[in-house]
Amino acid sequence: MKQLNKITLGLLTGLSLALPLSGFAQKKASLTSKTNSANAIDAIREADLKHDLFALAGDHFRGREGGTLDELKASAWIAEQMRAIGAQPAGDDGTYFQFFNIQHLRITKTSQLSIGSHKLTHGQDAFVLAPSPATVNAPLVFVGTGTPAELAKVDIKGKAVAILFSGTPPADLSFRRYMTMTMRDKSAELVKAGAVAVVYVSDARAQDLFVHWSTGYERGRYDLPGGPNTKVPQQAPTVWLPATDLAWVQQAGQQFTANINVENSLYPSVNIVAKVPGTDAKLKNEYVLFSTHQDHDGVRKAIDGDSIWNGADDNATGSAGTLAIMRAFVKKPSRRSALFVYHGAEERGLIGSRYYSATPTVPREAIVAVLNAEMIGRNAPDSAALLGSQRPHRNSADLVNLAMAANQAGPKFKLDTLWDKPTHPEGWYFRSDHLPYARLGIPSICYTTLLHKDYHTPKDEPERINIAKLANVTRWIYLTGWTVANRDQRPTPDKDFKLER
Questions:
Q1: Quick check: helix, strand or coil at residue 102?
Q2: pTM higher than 0.85 for the full model?
Q3: What does the buried/exposed string (b/e) look like for 197-211 if buried means 16 or more CB atoms within 10 Å of the residue's CB?
Q4: CA 192 – CA 497 distance, rounded (Å)
Q5: Segment (H or E) for 303
Q6: CATH no. for residue 141?
Q7: Residue 23: what pLDDT?
Q8: Contact call for residues 295 and 345 (beta carbons, < 8 A)
Q9: Which residue has the higher pLDDT, 174 or 483?
Q10: Which SUPFAM superfamilies does the record cross-reference, listed alphabetically (predicted)?
Q11: Which residues, in sequence order, are CB contacts of 3 under 8 Å at separation 6+?
């Protein structure tokens, strides 16, 4: 831990920091004069948001990948902005930081893989789906799309089975999740029937995912130390190939060989925590938690010549918005204290929020609500969504009603309700940092402007963000939090809250 603090101290010392910009050219959100005079919403300025967005999502921080020095550098920058704004440190040991370790399980670079004369490199032209050690040397048989009729013609016992991916997901499942589940379940069936390895070749739809999503398999699995994803799976290898390999994979008489090794190590990540103390002698011991995450995907394989996956919308928008809300609370503190938590390693599986919710730096029972900002700067300028606003995801009708009232007092977004339904194929409610708090019974909601075509690609650049919309969502979050932080009673949890999974 001492070594981690030295790293961070050096980063802070060496960083060149810019002061917040002033000026505000765009029209503010429509507010009543009474509401406007009661808060510091004027402190939320588009110029500041744009400055912070471009700083965090610029190439300097190389995509802020969780568990890397790039994430730590970006976190140090955020902490310095907190200090400059005037928010107090609320992390460990009087700092803005709460360090934690990520356990990382991955396939080593010394692992070898080949089919016939084709040598394959995991993470480049082939992906092994699970980091499981294996040694295989077996004939390869191609079984088409793997229908029962096709499998009945081939003896697969003791062989590696090559299969062309095919299928259509049900309405309540995205193609990505469907493909992942199908590969997993079909591979298990084939291995149970005697196969020693499974090789999937992409069809047209799976090929798009191979280009944009396969790098996650190169990284391996992450979790908090001792978590379920840190256990080394014991299973036959499943390999995923691009569609361009189909012609030669079908050739008869080839041998499949694999020598797969696995390594297990710890990486540092960090939550960044600040507070603005409340003004009420009693209520200042309670906290409204403004949540976001600072990490993204880092440097990965190049797409159209760009290898830095900057994550401007995901989630430099939420990070910039949270700094803007902080400025408003510093300008005019509320009765309750405002707590600001930037969660590290969200993209690794909500690891930072899972860690902070389990080991908060304030009493957990003192957290009255969580307002989470996740991707708040794209899509139609007049629309947004509030996750946790309807059953079974709603855990506080009281908090949701306050958020709805704040929307009407502020930006008046048309709210998309489809993405919060349990039948939505993306399962979006379960993929951001409000979730660990909601599971603990803390009233929690998530503000988002939803997915877009540049999601988790190098094209998620700051130039593509609608700054005016970002400002309006930020004001909406602020107005909700301002109300929660000033009224006498804390938001009431729903007594019958129970998630579908």
A1: strand
A2: yes
A3: bbbbbbbebbbebbe
A4: 40
A5: strand 298-303
A6: 3.50.30.30
A7: 29
A8: yes
A9: 483
A10: PA domain, Zn-dependent exopeptidases
A11: none
Cβ distance 387 to 446 under 8 Å? Answer: yes
Cα-Cα end-to-end distance for the chain: 35
Side by side, the strands of the sheet bearing 127-128 are 118-120, 112-115, 255-260, 134-142, 160-164, 197-201, 238-241, 127-128
* Structural domain includes residue 494: no
Question: Locate tokens 């060149």: which residue?
Answer: 16
Does residue 101 have a cis peptide bond before it, meaning omega lies within 30 degrees of 0? no
Report residue 496 as tokens: 């019958």
Per-residue pLDDT at 11: 39
What mean pLDDT comes out for the span 384-390? 98
pLDDT of 132 reads: 95
Q: Is the same domain home to 131 and 225?
A: yes
User: Does residue 244 sit in the same domain as residue 367?
Assistant: no
Closest CA to 31 of 22, 23, 41: 41
**Exposed e or buried b for every residue in 481-490, given b needs 16+ CB within 10 A?**
bbbbbbeeeb
209-218, 265-274, 299-308: which is most confident: 265-274
Work out the average pLDDT over 237-249.
Answer: 97
Q: Token pair for residue 314? A: 């995901």
Q: Distance of alpha carbon 373 from its chain centroid, rounded? A: 11
Q: How many domains does the chain divide into?
A: 2
Kindly state the average pLDDT of the residues 43-66.
98
Of 336, 298, 297, the C-alpha closest to 484 is 336
Residue type, 102: I
Q: How far apart are CA 154 and CA 473, in angstroms?
A: 58
pLDDT band (50, 70, 90) for residue 303 = confident
- CATH number of the domain within which 305 lies: 3.40.630.10
Strand partners, 239: 128, 199
One-letter-per-residue 3-state SS of 369-385: EEEEECCCCCCCCCEEE
Q: Both 139 and 37 in a single domain?
A: no
| Mean pLDDT, range 80-93, rounded to an integer | 98
Q: Is residue 17 a part of any domain in this protein?
A: no
Residue at which a domain ends, from 213, 239, 260: 260
Is 35 a residue whose pLDDT tops 60? no
Report the distance separating Cα 72 and Cα 81, nearest Å. 14
Are 152 and 275 in the same domain?
no
The DSSP code for 30 is P
Whole-number pLDDT of residue 214:
87
Angle value at C-alpha 120, between 115 and 121, nearest 5 degrees: 155
d(CA 445, CA 455) in angstroms, rounded, equals 21
94 and 132 in a common domain: no
pLDDT greater than 60 at residue 4: no
> 247: which DSSP letter?
H
